[in-house]
């Protein structure tokens, strides 16, 4: 394919728009280099690395405004490992899932396929639409994504029973916040487990999971793991115990923790969740507003209330080849605007996490206009 060059004055200052892994700020990489002779390659049981883990836990507590009695825990393996850990350690008998994209469906498949649990109650919606949990007999965990990374659908965060006290007749509310934690305001008292990985808003590498857990969830973990065999790597009880000591069960990727700590400091110093939420919302307004003003583009998510502020999905008309547009953007240094691979849509997908400057999103839209005109 012959490259259509884009004039330098049209290009964004930073061309990274991935939905995960996301843009890593230079200061984060610089911090990895700065700490290369002090914490990298040292024991994760000793004070320097434990201090780093403590800094991460405190940074998350500050950023997410964690309620009294809730704890920040962490472990290795990423959100995929956490799905299996939740199936083992949080669900007594039966889970209900709202599945409205690839990642909600994967967690549902984990609990639904567990031989020691009853078949899951799965409330599904087509891609681009929102599904919600609803009270059901025998369900002791209600689970749904706060933000579906594959489709760009965002969900309200609230308890299914609506009483807000964490009791819910023994049911827990478990929310996957992997692609939005730290970029939208949330009342964590409406959840029992709010879990995420660090390679999205928190602009670090994968392979780690983090969770904010309620007293009710801590009790459930102790109860279930005392009565069921659980593989040690997926056992949340040791994860709780080790997290309280500012460490992980097994060796973590220390460079990931360094970048995570630096990003948390950056977010909290600029105003925390309120600042980060406003910044991503500004980017989203630019992207969706641009799409609505084009005859050949429209937001994939029809309901404006369900459009994600951090992962924007835009469908293009059949007359515009989205794959060709993304390929030309990539040749000009603007990367990772391709849609989620399994959706198979003529679409652009844009990561709008707080590390992304809203003006770079504006520049991206201008570059797309430029290419569409010339490719036509």
UniProtKB/TrEMBL annotation:
Does the record carry Amino-acid biosynthesis as a key word?
A: yes
The cofactors required by this protein are: pyridoxal 5'-phosphate
Involved pathway(s): Amino-acid biosynthesis; L-serine biosynthesis; L-serine from 3-phospho-D-glycerate: step 2/3
- Keywords attached to this entry: Amino-acid biosynthesis, Aminotransferase, Cytoplasm, Pyridoxal phosphate, Pyridoxine biosynthesis, Serine biosynthesis, Transferase
Is Cytoplasm tagged as a keyword? yes
Which residues, by range, are in coiled-coil regions? none
Report the InterPro entries cross-referenced here: Aminotrans_V_dom, Pser_aminoTfrase, Pser_aminoTfrase_mycobac, PyrdxlP-dep_Trfase, PyrdxlP-dep_Trfase_major, PyrdxlP-dep_Trfase_small
Q: Which EC number(s) are documented for this chain? A: 2.6.1.52
Domain (Aminotransferase class V) ranges? 138-335
Q: Which reactions does this protein catalyse? A: 4-(phosphooxy)-L-threonine + 2-oxoglutarate = (R)-3-hydroxy-2-oxo-4-phosphooxybutanoate + L-glutamate; O-phospho-L-serine + 2-oxoglutarate = 3-phosphooxypyruvate + L-glutamate
Give the protein's biological function. Catalyzes the reversible conversion of 3-phosphohydroxypyruvate to phosphoserine and of 3-hydroxy-2-oxo-4-phosphonooxybutanoate to phosphohydroxythreonine.
Name the NCBIfam families for this protein: serC_3 (TIGR01366)
Q: What is this protein called?
A: phosphoserine transaminase
Question: Which species is this UniProt entry from?
Answer: Georgenia halophila
């Amino acid at each position: 394919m012959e490259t259509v060059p884009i004039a330098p004055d049209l290009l964004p200052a930073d061309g990274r728009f991935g939905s995960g892994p996301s843009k890593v700020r230079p200061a984060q990489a610089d911090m990895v280099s700065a700490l290369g002779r002090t914490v990298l390659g040292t024991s994760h049981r000793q004070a320097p690395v434990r201090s780093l883990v403590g800094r991460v836990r405190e940074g998350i507590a500050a950023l997410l405004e964690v309620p009294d009695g809730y704890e920040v825990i962490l472990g290795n393996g990423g959100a995929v490992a956490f799905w299996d850990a939740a199936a083992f350690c949080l669900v007594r008998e039966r889970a209900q899932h709202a599945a409205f994209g690839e990642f909600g469906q994967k967690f549902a498949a984990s609990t639904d396929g567990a031989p020691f649990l009853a078949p899951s109650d799965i409330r599904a919606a087509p891609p681009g639409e929102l599904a919600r949990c609803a009270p059901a007999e025998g369900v002791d965990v209600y689970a749904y994504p706060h933000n579906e990374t594959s489709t760009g659908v965002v969900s309200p965060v609230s308890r299914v029973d609506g009483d807000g006290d964490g009791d819910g007749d023994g049911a827990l509310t478990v929310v996957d916040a992997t692609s939005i934690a730290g970029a939208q305001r949330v009342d964590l008292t409406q959840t029992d487990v709010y879990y995420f990985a660090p390679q999205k808003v928190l602009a670090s590498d994968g392979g780690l999971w983090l969770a904010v857990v309620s007293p009710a969830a801590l009790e459930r973990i102790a109860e279930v793991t005392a009565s069921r065999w659980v593989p040690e790597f997926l056992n949340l009880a040791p994860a709780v115990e080790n997290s309280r000591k500012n460490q992980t069960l097994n060796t973590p990727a220390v460079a990931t923790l360094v970048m995570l700590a630096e990003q948390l400091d950056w977010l909290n110093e600029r105003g925390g969740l309120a600042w980060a939420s406003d910044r991503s919302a500004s980017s989203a307004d630019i992207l969706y507003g641009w799409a609505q003003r084009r005859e050949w583009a429209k937001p994939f998510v029809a309901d404006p209330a369900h459009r994600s502020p951090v992962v924007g999905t835009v469908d293009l008309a059949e007359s515009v080849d989205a794959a060709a547009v993304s390929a030309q953007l990539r040749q000009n240094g603007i990367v990772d605007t391709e849609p989620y691979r399994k959706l198979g849509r003529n679409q652009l997908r844009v990561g709008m996490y707080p590390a992304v400057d809203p003006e770079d999103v504006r520049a991206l839209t201008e570059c797309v206009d430029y290419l569409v005109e010339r490719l036509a």
